């Protein structure tokens, strides 16, 4: 039975298929089994999948990926050309594209609506250098 191959974008670009094959919700591609002939005979499909970091899917599994009802993670490729570097969100610092400076993160929001209602709004500190307003 024919299989679909879920592979990362580097594989699709390498094969020149990024405009010809479907993408799924996680940004990866669904390639055709015949596309794998570029890496060797289909009798070595398991080795090819290990090399490119792909997985073989049955037609109904490929449909689940397209619909977004199931997202299967891809293994890490053994071929360095196809390794996708993943970054942990905690390790990255957002950067303002206009001036390449780190973006100030906003203060955390209140945990619950009840906490927000009970907390009085923050008052601005009075400046000792200002003269009192004249209400005449």
Explain the overall architecture.
The protein is α+β, with helices and mostly antiparallel strands. The chain has a domain at 4-82. The protein is built from 4 helices and 4 strands; from the N terminus they run βαββαβαα. Strands 2-3-1-4 form a 4-stranded antiparallel β-sheet. The chain is globular. 15% of the residues are buried. The mean pLDDT is 80.
Provide a short characterization of the protein structure:
22% of the residues lie in helices and 10% in strands.
SSE layout and pairings?
Layout (H helix, E strand, L loop, with lengths): L3 E4 L1 H7 L6 E2 L5 E4 L12 H8 L2 E3 L1 H9 L45 H6 L18
Antiparallel strand pairs: 1-3, 1-4, 2-3
Distance between the termini: 90 Å
Number of strands: 4
Q: Over the alpha carbons, how many angstroms does the gyration radius reach? A: 26 Å
Question: In what range is the share of β-strand residues?
Answer: 5-15%
Amount of helix:
10-25%
The helix count comes to 4
């Amino acid at each position: 039975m024919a299989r679909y191959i879920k592979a990362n974008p580097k594989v699709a670009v390498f094969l020149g298929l990024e405009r010809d094959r479907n993408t799924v919700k996680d940004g990866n591609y669904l390639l055709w089994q015949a596309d794998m002939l570029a890496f060797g005979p289909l009798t070595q499909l398991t080795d090819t999948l290990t090399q490119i970091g792909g997985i073989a899917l049955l037609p109904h599994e490929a449909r689940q990926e397209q619909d977004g009802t199931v997202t299967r993670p891809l293994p890490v490729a053994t071929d360095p050309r196809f390794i996708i570097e993943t970054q942990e969100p905690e390790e990255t610092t957002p950067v303002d594209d206009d001036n390449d400076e780190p973006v100030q993160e906003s203060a955390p929001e209140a945990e619950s609506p009840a906490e927000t209602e009970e907390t009085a709004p923050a008052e601005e500190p009075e400046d000792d250098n200002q003269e009192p307003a004249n209400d005449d």
